[in-house]
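Folding Task

Wanted — backbone structure
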Amino acid sequence: MIKEKKYALISILGFSTFFLFNIYLFEGSCYFTGDGLRHYMVSRWCWQHPDLLFYHWGKPFFTIIASPFAHFGHGGIQVFNVIVSAIGIWCLFLMTHKHQIKNAWLVVPFSYLCIGFFTVINTGLTEPLFFCMIASCAWLAYDKKYLLSAFIISFLPFVRSEGNLILVLFALVFLLRKKYFIIPILAAGTIIYSIAGYFHYNDILWVFTKNPYDGKNKDIYGHGELFTFVKAYQSVVGNPYAVLLVLGTIVLLWNKIKNKIVDHIFSPEMLLLVYGSFALYFTAHSVFWWKGLYNSLGLTRVMGGVVPLIAPLCVIGANSLIYWRKEKLYKYAWSCVLAFYFMFEPLRLNFYPYELPAEEKVILETYNWIKTNNLQNRHFYYLNPFFASKIDRDAFDPNIMRELWGLYPNIHEWGYSVVPDTTLIIYDTHFGANEARIHPDSILNDTHFELLKTFKPDEPFEVLGGYNYMVQVYKKKPMK
């Protein structure tokens, strides 16, 4: 036990140091910067604008927990995700070890190097906290701390909406363990937030009525194949992980059939809360994308919230190779091969070294032009969160910055005078044309705005809606 713990702790410390160093080394150390940066901004400014504490899309529990770290900038919220990742992986290791799986400490590198998780750690996304809460509460339940487990996990839907599905699995485990009085505690998070948010929305049911995933934007997000995530396994788990996952599952089931393993390796907590959470989440997202439900975009990064949970199966798969033969040289050889392929996978798939995504490169060029021309203190309309993070001003103060989707609704209600003269409009064909629903031609042909500059990527590419990506900077003309 001591040796396993030592290996696990050293591995967690090493990987955490690696990810912390990346925050310092790479400006582009965060993929999926759009949503991640938005979550960062909500967390950073929530105490100046308390309504953000009940901003449904921002995930209120994530917002409040991450806010002390976000106060120190985007790097702060990246540090937060490194910390919660380490906590979650440590709890997953403890469960794996307690279930007497050999080389349980391998859960640590297998979790960190799983592509779907590797790419979300250095971000402001909610996936690492989502994983951390599932893993830690599964461990608490296995350790018979049922009340604490139920209370903490009750806030999971306020980290990611899929948490409502996971609560069903926890309820089932408490039912199997005959802890009937614990099941109602799973509603604690929803009850607390419903009451707290009532004083802001004047609606006790705001958790349901303010749901941002009501499907109203189905025409934008579309739908795809049922097996999209299966076919995209390289971006979800990576090749080595996928091979060991399949192998581990086969070995585990075969040994169970042959009664070669002890029964507690199939505890309800491991089966339902660890493996089951992954299976339910993966299946649900596959169906959501297939049927075009809940604003699903078929993004593989959403799997980052659960993919480490199948690391114990990968350890079982690895053990079947390592212990296939008794010779030490054979064991060392297989161990080296596995280590090499896991370490090489992020490089092979171009997930490391980090660099800014293509859209953010154009936004950065836009920001640099604004800064060079001393325009950064103007009033702005924007929607790409990377721009707001670069300007580093209170993105929720309407006297400083406003979001682009409010531009024309405000104009239609109050007239063009509602937009201060010399206001700069940062329009891009991703957020502006889709989320804000402003067609590129409509703003270009609006005589109240003057086009100052257009920025395009070196290599053209299309974004959501079939638009070629570009960023245009407009200035509001003085009213005559």
The longest helix spans residues 74-98. The longest strand covers residues 449-455.
